[in-house]
């Protein structure tokens, strides 16, 4: 069944750029929103509305008449708590509360491995382990997962929380296990939208990697079956990599470099993320 209206926050971001086109085909109207002035050429059925998720009135206006929200809008990095509070904490509350007031059926949320980033990679963790955030960024993901659970249990508003590991080009040894390809990202979000009943659900956003450090079997009902495998990059990546340090939390823990960051501080250069966002 095709949705009447779907809202995508964070539409100007790298992941949002790959989601816009497929989401526009799943609904009569896709409302893409971000804090930027423009997101380029729009797809058929898509319109852009500039808005700040930290401002309730702006979120409330955009969600009127929406069937579902794909919420990817946030600061995507570690920052001091005061900087994260509006976009990453208050922004999530605004989405859920405005969505509830408008009768939104479901929120699909870009959570993160950083909600459980302090677990060792040698533990094959599933979707029901307790939160162990590695940063204020990860803490915001824990908050929103708990928010989603509460709105389901108290108000019957569904949500799917996608604990994305690393949706970026494979440029380092960690990504051999954590990679989520853009095609698999699109499949993951699509299944979170078109699965008839989800309640409150958590699923890891990771491709079909031989070295994946997480277990998705308790989310199998979503029908997410990733097709890509980072092992195709292993020989080249490992040939250029330095020897792993087993005492380095950035190597040993699920959160990677985030697990080694001081709270409120970040060095994203360690992630070697390529900005290959899709152009329109």
TrEMBL record:
Keyword field contains Oxidoreductase: yes
Domain NAD-dependent epimerase/dehydratase, chain residue ranges per copy: 7-164
Single GO molecular function: oxidoreductase activity
Keywords: NAD, Oxidoreductase
UniProt xrefs under InterPro entries: Epimerase_deHydtase, NAD(P)-bd_dom_sf
Protein family per UniProt: Belongs to the NAD(P)-dependent epimerase/dehydratase family.
Protein name: NAD(P)-dependent oxidoreductase
